[in-house]
Every structure is written in C-alpha cells, then in structure tokens.
C-alpha cells in the first residue's frame, strides 16, 4: 500500500491531474489539529483505494504552496478537492471524515466501471453531425475540439443523459419525433438529454484541445410537451459565460466571478423546427479560448428543472494546447 503523493509545485499537480482519472488532494498545514486528525484517515483511504493512473491521493501544504492554494481558492484547512478527468468536481471543507470517505469510495467504484472510450466514439458512425442552426459565414462547427476527458457538469439528474450527451453528434431523439404532445417527455426510447436535479441551475465546464475563437454557441432544448405540465423541464433562460478558467465554478462561487458575457434568451429565440437557440457572442471577448463555463442560472417558466439536449460550438480552431499545463487567462 502506498500513501499520498506530496505536491511540491503547480507543475507536479498539473501533471498528476492529466495522468490519473481520479485525484484527491488534501490541503493541510502542520499546526492544525484538525488537519492532523483528518490526515490519518486520509492516509488510510489512500492505502486502501489508491491505484496507479486510476485513483491517486495527494497532499499540499497550503502554507508552503500558496500559488496552488490561491489557484483553487483554498482559504481554510483542511480542504479536500476531488478531481475527475482533470476537472474539479467536489470541494469538501472541515472535519467531516464520513463525507470524505463516502465521496472517495463512490468515485473509486465509478472509476473501476467507467469506460475508457474517447468522446464521440458512440456517435461517430452516425450519418452526420447534428447542427441545430445555420452556420455564420466564414465559421464552422468546432465542437470536435471539446476535450471530453475534462468535461464537468454540476447538478444534473443521473436518470437522464450525462455531460457527454450534450456533445453527441446525433440528432436529439425528441427533435426527430417532432414538436407536439409527448415530444419532450421522452417516454419512448432513450433519454438522450440532460436535466437539472435539485433546482433549475446547471454549471457546465468545457475544456478544449486547442485555443478557439468562438463566434456562436448553439443550444438545443426540446420544448415542454404541454404548457399546463408543471413538472415539465424548462428551457434555459439566463446563461452566464466564463472563459479560460482552470476548473468548474461552484454555484456560490459564480456569484463572485465576473461573467465574460451574460445572455438572456427569449421564447422567440428558439427555432420551432430544430428547438435550437443561438447564443450570439461578443466575438472580441471570445478570442483564444481554451475553456468555457456555461452557468444556466434559471429557466423560461415556473418549473423546477431545466433541460438541454445538445450544445454545438461555432467558430475557428487555433493551435493545439499543451495539455497538462496550468494556464492563466490573458488580460484583455
């Protein structure tokens, strides 16, 4: 059995995040009694669950490695960050050993059963790529530059599709069925869309394999089957966009980070035939983009859940990113 890896530089942590499917990081300091107590439990978890390139445990001295602590907004110790496929998915503060243990064990079990297929493999044999709206002159669909290994979606209902469903190249099944009664219910066939879980908000982190110039984002969301159905999921309304972040935002954290652009969709923005709306971006603000966060703050209606079927990224692709390196956004 091996213990946690001691992180001594941002580059070492970045390399670790790119080489292991699950990474758990313990931010601690030497003088904190709570850090010491949780550290013993953490070491035991590492000894039982750590597996090379699958589940890796690491520890960071928060006082010595201030650059790493600041990068991930670690203020108090102990703090535990959990990463999956290079993207932060959970942040645990304080001394809740049971919560930490349950979260790590659950993810370790998922890592064992998770398929290793790359993004788009399931849909690569389809007859063509789904495009919900026309392409602006001079630009193309660059969704193939999405780095599926780093995708992260917060507050989604696991009874429906996963984050990768949003970027499938196939036509959404409910759009193929056509608008009308039952079109959005998905009572027949697979549920190839995403719905939010406990409320209407969704937080999506999208890293790219190359730097992009993003002109437009297409969002497909099948309409409610009936205006009288209070349980039907809503279409997104207010969307905050953030560029070039190193990891996903928490919902509370998003309130303190200035958005690159905020868009409020109107009912008239949705194409009746394709159930797709275009997010027209301020193009000058979306140059050299290597990651994107879409925060769906609310939906169009009085429902409790929001639905998205597909997302397409329209623009230009640039030079390939050097993966595994921490990057900082350039100043405008």
From TrEMBL:
UniProt keywords, alphabetically: Disulfide bond
Keyword 4Fe-4S in record: no
Gene3D superfamilies: Glutaredoxin (3.40.30.10), PITH domain (2.60.120.470)
Pfam families (UniProt xref): PITH, Thioredoxin
Top-level taxon of origin: Eukaryota
Membership in a protein family: Belongs to the thioredoxin family.
Protein name: PITH domain-containing protein
Source lineage: Eukaryota, Fungi, Dikarya, Ascomycota, Pezizomycotina
